Amino acid sequence: MATAFGVIDTGLREGRANIAFDAALIEARRTGVIGDTIRFLSFAPSALVGRHQAIGREIKLDYCRAHGIGLARRITGGGAIYFDPGQLGWELVFERKSLGLDSLAETTAAICSAAAKGLQRLGVAAAFRPRNDIEVEGRKLCGSGGFVDADVVFFQGTLLIECDLAAVVRALNVPQPKLAKRGLETAAQRMVTLHELLGVRLPSPDRIKAALLAGFSEGLDLDAQWRRVSETEEAIAQRLLEEEIGTDAFVFDIDDPAADGAAAAGTRTTPGGTITAYLKLETAGTPRVGEALVTGDFFAAPPRLVLDLEAALRGAPVQDIGAAVERFFAGRHVEVLSVTPADFRAALEQAADAAGQR
Q: Domains of the chain, with CATH numbers?
């Protein structure tokens, strides 16, 4: 029997409000206020940084402020993205047992493959490309990401319909090495829109949503039925917006750690993502970790994984930082997409080396 999913469309909202609604869906699903849900959404022009990224390093803040582009921090990991009304957001929130997907990697592959199947109905040769993209002939049409939090899975994607790709370059600091490994000069070369692919045959927004729903229904064996957005969902979203997600304290929680000359840095770059670690040391007596900060464009679950790692490292002897990282990951079930616990260890050990304490 197909799994029942409700479908909602929350329309066009500014960035922080949309992300607050993401968090509201997770809370409402965890507490049983709503059932498994698919949401469609659109953004006013926004630059969104990943949960673990340093916003001052990833986004051109002065440009965005001067041109009225909103600044927000997602609750999911991954890299910075530019979002405008020419893109369609889609997301699924559901109990893990509903679809029987065991890992974050398996969840990503299943959902992205289903979304690609839906986009094929529009006449494009869309296909899932690990780690988390949907591509057409090597160009990115849709990015995605998510996490598993206890029994609730949250997964989201961004479909490029007819957005201003040049705005991506103007708003974001896209790392040159990330482009060079694909032989590209700008981020816009890496992406493609439905409008570019289909021209005058570009479907209406309703047809695009219907195609995606058909793909999810077929690929994931869902019974997707439209429903109204509840007052409870809106109330939870408004509370989260006001108390946390809409605040500058949350958005700028990680700003530009490299600007702090007291912090030593180490970076580990893998084919699927980058981890940059920063350490402040206490050097009285045996050198120990005073503060640790782990940033990057990786996806990790549970959502508190990085915060818990940082807390676990405080007070650890710097000489033993690698062993401390090993003990942390050995003691809990974690899921990371495209990076490994060894990559976290390598970045932190490099930071310790940079501090001259290993």
A: 3-251 (3.30.930.10), 257-354 (3.30.390.50)
